[in-house]
# Entry
Amino acid sequence: MKTLKTQVAIIGAGPAGLLLGQLLAKQGISNLILERVSGDYVLGRIRAGILEQGLANLVREAGVAERMDAEGEVHEGVEFAVDGVRKHIDLKGLTGGDVVICYGQTELTKDLMDARQAAGLLTCYEAANVQLHDIAESTPSVTFDYEGEKHSLCCDYIAGCDGFHGTSRQSIPADKRTEYERVYPFGWLGLLSDTPPASEELIYCKSERGFALASRRSATRSRYYLQVPLTDNVEEWSDDDVWAELKRRLPQDVAENMVTGPSLEKSIAPLRSFVCEPMQYGRLFLVGDAAHIVPPTGAKGLNLAASDVHTLYKVLTRVYQENDTACIARYSEVALKRVWHGERFSWWLSNMLHDYGDEGGSGVDAKMLDRFMDSERDYFLNTEAGRRVLATQYVGLPYEEV
Ligand code: APR
Ligand code: PHB
# Structure
């Protein structure tokens, strides 16, 4: 058994783990990341690409913003289309200057990986059998198999950044956590292609045939999504099928403008709302998808992970630089407040834009729910007050101080 030592053990090298590691290292706090899969595998995952200003600022604070600031697109507005009628939401005007940045999560992850490597910070990729020990004691540790040898990592704190299927959350005794979950009755089929996007701004579309989203990565790369039944397999959808269905769901002028081409990636993801409370136990802190999942409507997943990272980074900086251990107990409460706002927003936006078929919900039948959602769409897209609420939450609520 090889023994290692660090101040903060980070489980998972997704964007949450990598960003936290970079910020802590900048403050002189040592950390080591354990990742189950290879770096190439991590970079092969295609995820959303809308960064709130809070996240963009955190990336700048971490010193990893060069490419994001050079290549990321500033989006001052976003569009919604209801049955073909387009509505522009002036994010910048309605929020007093806030915007979002369109920059793929995969690109951000690559930048963080490169920066970590350049700084000589250790990430153990393909670390198997990661197990957390003594998390309620003052000397926790993590054991794992790496390069054919068993390792034990002694640390002060553990950051569980290992996503929804990770091991960290499961290490909290079941009677010490409460989990909230909603699984939606449909999925999103995503298609990435090297074709010029159909629109300068993102367009979230509610149509009679279900939801569609026209998104982008750059002037030459597009990302589209379709609401599909959970029973669909991606193999059943040829590229031509996807393009044809997009044409039916997007507003007519957008559909006419859309350039089609072969897909670079195509996959179906289920939609889920999930929260684990509290987000800490002993010396373990849960961060990002390990503690909460949102449906992708509104692109809050990565941004909520970032606000957790901000909170934990501030807590640990105070612990190590000011010897303030009292603030540790506040992590979960501060993080969860913003998480629930993001959860509610993503759930609400999903409700407004998808077709729920005969399901209904919230104690009303499907027909009545349809009428309620007509009224929601009318208010939040067609009144100034409604648009301001939508814009304020879309660009992201401010980070809470610890
Ligand atoms: N041991 C080590 N690493 C693990 C383990 C484990 N047992 N289980 C999972 N991991 C790794 C995964 O391989 C993955 O690389 O943890 C990482 C978690 O990364 P993400 O799933 O990307 O989660 P996170 O970093 O919280 O990123 C925020 O929010 O909505 C999403 O799209 C958004 O992926 C983004 C996420
Ligand atoms: C994306 O571009 O992948 C994307 C954008 C906005 C969303 C979800 C996904 O709400």
In short: The mean pLDDT is 97. The domain at 2-75+99-180+272-358 is CATH 3.50.50.60 (FAD/NAD(P)-binding domain). Residues 11-17, 34-37, 42, 47-48, 105, 127, 130, 161-163, 165-167, 288-289, 301-302, 305 surround adenosine-5-diphosphoribose (ligand 1) (CB under 6 Å).
